[in-house]
Amino acid sequence: MKENSSSKALLALSAAALGIPGLATLAPAVSAESPPERTTISYAYTQYEEDDLDASKLAVGSRERYDIDVHQLGLTTALSDRYGFAVNLARETMSGASPQAISADVQGDPQVVMSGASIEDERLDVSSSLRRYNEDTTVGVNLGYSGEDDYTAFSGGLDGSLTFNDRLDTISGGFAVSIDTVEPTQQIGFDRPKSEDKDSLTVFAGYSRIITSVSQIQGSLSATRKSGYLSDPYKLNDVRPDERLQLAASARYRHFIEAADAAAHVDYRIYGDDWGIMSHTLDLAWYQNINANLQLVPSFRYYTQGQADFYEPLTGLNTSGERSSDFRLSPYGAVTAGLKAIAYGYDWKMSIGAERYISDADFAVESVDRPNPALVEFTRISIGFEYSI
Amino acid sequence: MKIKLMTAVRAPVAALLVISLVVGLQACAQVKPWERGDLARSEMAWDPDPLASTLDAHIYFAKEASSGGSAAEGGGCGCN
Amino acid sequence: MTDFGLHHYRFKALGGPCELRLGGERANADRWSALAVDLLQTFEQRYSRYRADSIVSKINARAGTGEWTHTDTMTGALLDYAAQAFAMSDGLFDITSGILRQAWDFRSQQLPPQAELIALRAKIGWELVERRADAIRLPIEGMALDFGGFGKEYACDAVATLLRQQGCQSGFVDLAGDIAVVGPDPAGQPWLVGVRHARAPDRAITFTGLSSGGFATSGDYERFMIIDGRRYCHLLNPMTATPARTPASVSVAAEACLLAGTVCTIAMLREDGAAAWLDSLGLGYCLLHDKLAAEHDMRTALRLGLAVSTLPDVDQARLRNAFNST
C-alpha cells in the first residue's frame, strides 16, 4: 500500500514538473498550440443610452433616441486536446426613434427629422467557432446568425494561424461571408422596399511579432466587398451605390511596464472605401494592476472620418443620382473615454465599466461647413462576470 | 472625384506597407521562451475581453462609417 | 565535418561550476553554450535570493506587509512544483525553511542558541503561504522563500531541453554535480556518471550509465560541522529547525534532474527511512551510509551494509576503456 501511494506521489511531482515552462523533458509537445485549458462561461450586461436630441436641432418627431439593453453570454471550452469550441449569444432590446432626414430651419441651419413614434425591436445574435490546434498552426470555422424583425444575416468563415521563428512570429488570415436580407417595416406614406438582399465578403491577413520580453506588435489588413441593397430604407431620399469596397489597415501594440505594473495598449486603424470615406481610429488603454486581484483600465478613443462623395448635408438637395444625408456618412470626429475595474479571483473575474462617447463636426480633422445635427452621443455602462471550471 | 476615391482606398494599403516595414524591422532581439512570462499576462493579450470587444465593434459598426481591421467580423445588422 | 566532435565548456553559473559537453560541429556547440549561459543568467536574475531585483527578493521584501506579488506563469508553475514536493514529503521539503541559515553557520563550529531557532521556526511553513491564481503573499515579516533547493536542478533541465530544441543531439549539462542529459554520447552510448564517495568527495565510489533524464546527489559533506562527534550538515529539518540525521549521501537518476534533486533532498531528510522510501518510488538510486569510511570501496560498502544501490551497473570493460582512453 505504501509503495502505491509513494509512486503516485512521484507521478504527481512529475506532473507538477511538467507544468513548468521550459521543462519539456518528459513531453515534447508542451509548447505547441493548444485549446483553452479550462472551460469558461462569461456573461455581460450592457446598458447603452443615446442622449436625447437637442430641442434646437429637432425639426419634427421624437427627441428620444436609441436605448439598448444588451445581454451577452459566452462559452469557451476544449472538446479534446486538439479541438476548442466557443459560442457567443447576444440579445439586444432596443427602443427609441431614429433620424429620417435633415431639413433646414428658417435660418437655413440643418435640423433633424426624427421618426415620430418610438421603435421597439429585438436582435438575437449567435456566433460560434470550432478550432483545431496543431503543433504550430490553428484552423478555425466560424458560423453566425443575427436576426431582427426587419433584418436577417447569416455569416460564415474560415481562418488560420501559423507561428514560426521559435514562436516569435505569427501570421494569420482568413475570410468571411455574410448573406443579409432587409425586410423593412412598412409605413403609410413611405415607399420602402419589401425585401432586399445584401452580400459581403471579407478577407483579412495579419502578422504579429514578439519584439522584446515586454512588447509585441501586430499589423493587419482587411478588405470587404459589399454588394446589393446598401441604402437605408428608413431614411428619406437615401440612394447609395449598390457596391462598396472597404479597406482597413491596423497596427496594434502591447507594452508591459514592469515599474508601473501596467500594460499599455495602443491600436491604430486607417480605413478607406470607394465611397470616398477615409477615417482614422486611435485606441489607447492602460491596464493598471492595483494589486493581484484588481485592475483599473482607463481608455481613450479618437475617431475621425471624412464624408462620402455622395453625402449631402440637407436631404433632398439632389433628386437624382446617389445621395444620402445619413450622419454616418458625414464628416465628423468622435471621442470616447472609459474606465473599467476588473476584479480577479482564482476561478472568476468580474468587471464593471462606464464609457462616454461624444461626436462633433468640430472634432473632424478637416473643418466642416454644415455639421450634421443627427450626430450621436451615448453613455454605456456594463458589468461582466466570468467563471472558469 | 475619381482621384479622391482612389486616395481613400489606397491610404490603408500604403499604411499597411509602413506598418509591415516597422513590424519587419523589429527582427533584432530574439526573446527566449523562458523570457515570455510577462507577455503571457492576460492584460497583454491582443483582446483581453472578447465579449466586450465584440460589442465595441458592433456599436461602432452601427454608429460610424468604418469597419474592419484585425479580423473578419460576423454579419451586419439593421441597427440605426 | 572535420570539426565534428565532443566540445567542452566550463563556466560559473548559479554560484557554482557549470560544465557542458556537447557533441556536434564546433560552431553549433559554441552557439549552444552561449544560449546555455544566457538562460542560466536570466534564471539567476529572476530567482536568485542574492539579487534585490529578483522575483524571489520582491516576494520576500513584502513579507508581512499584506501586499501581494504578481507571479507570472513560470514562477507560478515553480511554486506549484514546490507545493507538490511539500505535500509529497509530508512537509520536509519546504522552500520557506531557508531562513534557518541565519542561525546555522557551519563555519562557526557552534550550535545556535535555542531561542533563535524557536523564533525562526515560527516563520517557517509552506502551509502559511497565501496564494492566488497569479499572486503570492508571505503573511509574516521575516518569512522568506528560497528556490535554492530546486532552482538549480530545474535550470539544468531547462538548458538540456533548450539545447535539444536547438538541434543538439548529444551532450549533457552538469551544474555542480546535478546533471541533465541532452542526448547520449556521440557513439549513442549512455554517459558514464560517477557517484561521489561521501567520505572522499573528490573520488567516485561507483559509476552508472545515463542516456536520458537527470541525475542528482545530495550529500552531508557539502556544508557541515562536527561538534562532540556529531555531524551537523546543511540539510535542515523545517519541523525541528535543526540538521537532519541524514545518510552520508543519496544519488538518484530520474526522468528529469529536477525530480532527481527533489527526491534526493527528501530522502536525506527522511533520515533512517530514506532507503525504504526510495525503494517505494522505483527510481534508480545509490545511498551511502553515515558510517562509511574513506577507505571503503563500493564492493566493501555493499558487503558491510554501508551502501544500497539500485543504479544500473556499468559494463566493466567499458569502464576500463573509458579510463584508459583519458
UniProtKB/TrEMBL annotation, chain A:
Pfam families: DUF3570. Keywords: Signal. Residues 1-26 form the signal peptide. It comes from the Bacteria. The keyword Signal applies. The keyword Signal applies. This is DUF3570 domain-containing protein. It comes from Allohahella marinimesophila. The lineage of its organism: Bacteria, Pseudomonadati, Pseudomonadota, Gammaproteobacteria, Oceanospirillales.
UniProtKB/TrEMBL annotation, chain B:
This is DUF4266 domain-containing protein. Pfam families: DUF4266. Residues 31-80 form the DUF4266 domain. It comes from Allohahella marinimesophila.
From TrEMBL, chain C:
Keywords: FAD, Flavoprotein, Magnesium, Metal-binding, Transferase. Its EC number is 2.7.1.180. The keyword Ubl conjugation does not apply. Gene3D superfamilies: ApbE-like domains. Its cofactor is Mg(2+). InterPro entries: ApbE, ApbE-like_sf. It comes from the Bacteria. GO terms for molecular function: transferase activity. It is an enzyme of class 2 (transferase). It catalyses: L-threonyl-[protein] + FAD = FMN-L-threonyl-[protein] + AMP + H(+). Belongs to the ApbE family. This is FAD:protein FMN transferase.
